[in-house]
Amino acid sequence: MAVMDAILKDLTESQIDAVTHLDGPLLMLAGPGSGKTRVVTHRIAYMISQGIAPSQIAALTFTNKAADEMRLRVEKLVPGQSVWMGTFHRFCAQLLRRYAPMVGLAENYSIYDTSDSKQAMKRAIEVADVSTSHTSPEQIASTISRAKNRLVTPEMMLASSKRSGPTMASKVYPQYQQQLLTANAVDFDDLLLHIALLLRDNPELRAQLDARFRYILVDEYQDTNLAQYAIVRALSIDHPNLSVTGDPDQSIYGWRGADLNNILDFEKDYPSVKTVRLEQNYRSTPNILRVADQLIQHNRRRKQKELYTHNDEGDPVVLRIYHNGYEEADAIADEISNAMAVEGFRPRDFAILYRMNALSRSLEHAMRRRGLPYQIINGLEFYQRKEIKDLLAYLHLINNPRHDVALQRILNTPTRGIGAKTIQRLRGYADRHNVPMLDAARQVDQIEGLAKRSATCVTRFVELFDRLSLKATASIEDLLRYVVEETKYEAFLLKSHVDEQDSSAVANVDELITAGVEFDRYHPDDGSLELFLEQTALVADTDAFEDENDRITVMTLHAAKGLEFPRVFVIGVEDGLLPHSRSRDTDAGMEEERRLLFVGITRAKERLQLSCCKSRTFRGDSRPAVPSPFFNEMPLDEIRRVESEVQQNWFDDDPYGNSYPDSWDLPEEDSEANQDSEPNQDSGSAVHEKPDSLFDETCQLTEQDREQEIAKRKKKTRAPLASLQTAAEMLASGSAPPLTVYREGTQVRHGEYGEGTIVSVTGRGPKRTAMIRFDDGERNFRLAFANLEVIGG
DNA sequence: TGGCAAAGGCTTTTT
DNA sequence: GCCTTTGCCA
């Protein structure tokens, strides 16, 4: 049979083993580049070819992108079949649409994004009346989020905190849930939580859905949390045809509640499981694979596996040491541009990966200056833009008039005379009566202490809203255009960006409308406002990735999971960055960081470069950087180490005025540059005894380097690095603005407040701040801005 | 009330 | 360095 041939052709024995497994639990342990997606898609095709109804199959992925990819490939094998494929969150969102009333919601419920839920959280904290002096809303939010991922309800949290006294989170959690319920909204975690609890508490519904989704496939199983575990478990009792794929070594979402035990204990949960191991790697060269393998051997919580490949040896992995982040970015951009010109690589062949989004900036500069086409996949993108959030807030409120966060956002946007005070009054009224704020706005006359004028403005807003609501069933495009027009939104944008060259805001509005047009075209029949909003809420940053675009890809290591590129650069492989300083303290944290680097390394097919810098600009000023301890866990003898030469004109060529800080700092802060890199004494007991840590000479500034740098800086007119010169020298050379020494006891005169005495000086660089005592009290000034005159001391 | 400028604070990763 | 909050003035 032809279809069958196509499905099983070119598969290895163990792959066929997995593909042809139909009934009963299946665990696929698949190393990087082992053709996992291929096996999963072929398996779906095989199932269908064996007569299993596509409607009984659900494939759950981690990102929409992975789902799209899967859909595309299944479509090729068995055209026209409709298997449900999508993310866990989308899966739950759609179930919840249907069963919303069972958890106290209406089916037009809204999905709060992170910033929405932060707003709700603040309000909950206010209502719960707890002091946040020792925590932040974010901290409480993350505690509650973790609780939800572990299926802990407000009642459970309260009960468990009975003994030690209620915690901040246990007091806020019920309030927060009340906020969401009143607003007919859920947050990301609730999507999973509601469904998990629904399945647990309603045996009939559970059985019904178990039968409906008879075959469930879960991708990236190593990244599932308890809530997700409970959901798939509940759907696989009568029909335990659950197949999961994953790689414990690629679990990188522990911070989000992912529980490695889900995959490590799968065989215990389902004793009759068939386990298939896919260990052959079809992606990378042996050189790359050995580095990855030796690194990950240092993790203890894992399942041992043998990675091997029949690919050609290829080039050695390169470890590159740069002076600073700007050089790193420039050199990589040059290298890419060279490889394209000389070796015929395409932009899409390259990926640059890093631990934090903040590291993308210098890369962006470097590539833009060379005219290299690139795509940055990062947070704070399109849907986070103010103008987009504003317009979507209108749509959200039209779809769900109880959406309080949206209401508060647009009540005075564009400005229409409704101030913070008025909004606060409305909120207070709403909280007291336990009603949505829009209802409060409709009853504005009954709110005491509100100025007549404010009340009129509110009423006018309600009228506007009612007018907009009449268009609720129009196409998304029409609705958006109508909103923009009725609110005079563009005029508002133009007015608020008068002197800026920021025309991008208006362009973004157009782009949103375009997105609406596309949605309308894609959903001629089933398109609804609700669905549009759901889609925009559940898009991830990684989904913006388009591989048909011929561009260099720039993104975080997290976002890179599941992708592959011929040439990969991992930048910023430095202690404190990778591993990140906030993960360094625990073994679990370190292991996850190690896995993260493992994921980065194994994205590369042909060539891999890891790089670190001697100094890195961070939060405004540059600090010495130390290579990642992970380098000591790699086969260094087969890695090619290249230290960039000191470029003669490097500092003069530097296009960014700030690669070295101007000298605001007082000489006493010298020491920082000198107390380099003690190669992490506290951590790494096992690998520690290598005294010849290869970085001794390379990654600390040698005396010679230092002298060269001093010489070069002296030539410049810009203020030199304070740590390398005394204030007197700077004055003598005329290279610095007259350096005023502000210290405790210095007498100063302020243009406005008169004479005073400096009590203390804190902070560094442009943020250096002095506390000055005047006759009428103490005030803080930033020395860089304050207009101070020294009169003595 | 609204607009602006300065101070404050903060950065891991994302559905 | 950048975004958010605050505090002051028209």
TrEMBL record:
<keyword id="KW-0347">Helicase</keyword>
<dbReference type="InterPro" id="IPR027417">
    <property type="entry name" value="P-loop_NTPase"/>
</dbReference>
<feature type="domain" description="UvrD-like helicase C-terminal">
    <location>
        <begin position="286"/>
        <end position="562"/>
    </location>
</feature>
<dbReference type="Pfam" id="PF13361">
    <property type="entry name" value="UvrD_C"/>
</dbReference>
<protein>
    <recommendedName>
        <fullName>DNA 3'-5' helicase</fullName>
        <ecNumber>5.6.2.4</ecNumber>
    </recommendedName>
</protein>
<dbReference type="GO" id="GO:0016887">
    <property type="term" value="F:ATP hydrolysis activity"/>
</dbReference>
<dbReference type="GO" id="GO:0000725">
    <property type="term" value="P:recombinational repair"/>
</dbReference>
<dbReference type="GO" id="GO:0003677">
    <property type="term" value="F:DNA binding"/>
</dbReference>
<feature type="compositionally biased region" description="Acidic residues">
    <location>
        <begin position="665"/>
        <end position="675"/>
    </location>
</feature>
<keyword id="KW-0413">Isomerase</keyword>
<keyword id="KW-0067">ATP-binding</keyword>
<keyword id="KW-0378">Hydrolase</keyword>
<dbReference type="GO" id="GO:0043138">
    <property type="term" value="F:3'-5' DNA helicase activity"/>
</dbReference>
<dbReference type="GO" id="GO:0005829">
    <property type="term" value="C:cytosol"/>
</dbReference>
<feature type="domain" description="UvrD-like helicase ATP-binding">
    <location>
        <begin position="9"/>
        <end position="285"/>
    </location>
</feature>
<feature type="region of interest" description="Disordered">
    <location>
        <begin position="650"/>
        <end position="692"/>
    </location>
</feature>
<dbReference type="Pfam" id="PF00580">
    <property type="entry name" value="UvrD-helicase"/>
</dbReference>
<feature type="binding site">
    <location>
        <begin position="30"/>
        <end position="37"/>
    </location>
    <ligand>
        <name>ATP</name>
    </ligand>
</feature>
<dbReference type="InterPro" id="IPR014016">
    <property type="entry name" value="UvrD-like_ATP-bd"/>
</dbReference>
<keyword id="KW-0238">DNA-binding</keyword>
<dbReference type="InterPro" id="IPR000212">
    <property type="entry name" value="DNA_helicase_UvrD/REP"/>
</dbReference>
<dbReference type="InterPro" id="IPR013986">
    <property type="entry name" value="DExx_box_DNA_helicase_dom_sf"/>
</dbReference>
<dbReference type="GO" id="GO:0033202">
    <property type="term" value="C:DNA helicase complex"/>
</dbReference>
<comment type="similarity">
    <text>Belongs to the helicase family. UvrD subfamily.</text>
</comment>
<dbReference type="InterPro" id="IPR014017">
    <property type="entry name" value="DNA_helicase_UvrD-like_C"/>
</dbReference>
<keyword id="KW-0547">Nucleotide-binding</keyword>
<dbReference type="GO" id="GO:0005524">
    <property type="term" value="F:ATP binding"/>
</dbReference>
